[in-house]
Amino acid sequence: MTDFPSFPPGFVFGAATASYQIEGAVQEDGRGPSIWDTYSHTPGLVANGDTGDVACDHYHRYPQDVALLRELGVGSYRFSIAWPRIVPDGSGPVNAKGLDFYSRLADELLAAGIEPAVTLYHWDLPQALEDDGGWRVRATAERFGEYAAVVAEHLGGRVPRWITLNEPWCSAFLGYSVGRHAPGAREGHGALAAAHHLLVGHGLAVQALRAAGVREAGITLNLDHHLPATRSPADEAAVTRADTLHNHVWAEPILRGRYPATEEDTWGALITAQNFRRDGDLELISQPLDFLGINYYRPIVVADAPHRESDPARRVATDNRYEEVPMPDVRRTAMGWAVAPHTFTDLLVELKEQYGDVLPPVHITENGSAEDDETSPDGAVHDHDRVAYLRDHLTALRAAMDAGVDVRGYYVWSLLDNFEWAFGYDKRFGIVHVDYATQRRTPKDSYHWYRSLIAAQRR
Ligand code: FCB
Question: In angstroms, rounded to a whole number, what is the distance separating the alpha carbons of residues 264 and 280?
């Protein structure tokens, strides 16, 4: 008999996806282009030239996907809204057909007894806004606030949990510093402005959500647990820089209304030379939240390293004097990511120590693993490694709760195999296998395991 970790009554089990990764139908019902359409259609940027044009065809197959969720027994489903379906040109007219799609989805979920949890921005910025400067400019944050108001007014009464941004670190730094995500810019300075404007956009969206009277508003950060390669002071200092950039540059403004004292060592004169931070921004950014969403996948081991970039204007983000080194003696997922579940406990416990009472209740809004799944002749997918990953991370999460961290929910990433950004369809994170040629969905062993874990809580 399998032993499942047990969670307190009311703990929310969920599954997560994101619009561009599953929907397809990119030209349907008035949707405008997003930066991910442009990026994925640029030769050489995404593995195999994959695009989200069809993806899992969820736009048409959502009733079937909601049925999978119902059968799974989750209490909540986290999905994101494609901004270019709602405001195809980034500003100006609202597209009623786009709103209707999410309205139908929300109703289908509610009818299945599943609470919708909406992410307003999971990276698919309307291309028109990128053409006007993207997140480098403040106007994009203002447009985001307006879009949030439209969506919240339409869906606010039916959607209890709202996430403004997903992983703004990725949007700012992968998008504008190293170009590994859309819009593919490699700019240094641009990424710092983007980081701040994303936070301003978050603040404006929270205002819009409050005005619409939603039950819970929060944000999702990809907080990382960094470990030093050695106990040398230089490597310990590298950990501080990495923690600053990945975690505190986001969590401190949001939770404490200030940028971290360590940012100068991380970014130096780059930050003081900027004029994009305005009086009053930090008050906007630090409005009280009902929860903090955290996405966690893996620990990162860092070592001190010299600047690789000689141009000071580009020294940002991935070039602030540390480099990632492999963690020894651990299994790696198909992403090459180290599997070390105890670091999940450590991250959460340290976060509680660092932020204390200003840390709101936590929802784990993503956790999961990409594995080299094989379909057996009977059609089943025996993804033992993913089952072990999920079991061990849920056990580690429970340990953090026992140590006093207030965690209210857990969303597995992902319901479906899907478009994994620059890796295209090569990397499969789903607990449901998708055959992209036929769009056939097959629940994997991990789906059945998660279903049993959820059912076991009710006993
Ligand atoms: C996170 C993203 C999500 C997915 C997982 C694997 O960074 O939020 O869309 O790609 O990683």
Answer: 21
